[in-house]
Amino acid sequence: MNTPAARSGLLRQAVATTLTLGALAHAQTDTPPTPPAYPVTLIGGRVVSVSAPAPDPHPDGGWMEWQLDQRQPSLDGRFHALLFRQSSNNPKHDPIVVHLVKPDGRVLPLKNGDVFDVTWMPDGQYLLGRGGNTLRLWNTSGGLRTRVLPGMEALDVKPGVVCVATLPAGNTVGLIVQRFHVPSLRPLGEYTITGVPTNRRFCR
Q: Residue 203: which of 177, 172, 173, 170 has the closest Cα?
């Protein structure tokens, strides 16, 4: 209907759309904030500065920035794993990336680094990551090996072995701990424990 009321409604919609697009265009042309940098002390006392990843544009305007979430040095202090978390528009999960700081200060972003936490093997040569349903194993050159393991709750390690506590669907008795050889991730058997092993060792 080409009535004055209809024309007025269409005009209001057009103005609102123009204002919205203008605001988004303005937000996307804003200069992105400088990523924060964090000091890392290497063996020998040298300090290097490691920057978070560059922010990404937010769909609603502004920027989705990264902040340091976890810092995990290897047991010998030669390598440092830095986990950065992004304040994203995903209501269920904020993405994670992992950067590996080498003994000479070089920074290596690791592939498929979206994990909840990481654990170093005792020899400092391998880093393990616990994802939503995938165990990740990186070497210090960035090489990656994975194994699908739904329901992971915790990791524990001992020389040459990683133990993964998993909660099978419908299990109300305890957790199943699956043992794997490192670095092959070849299965080495399993056993059951009671309770979630928060801050306690459980690898046999």
A: 177
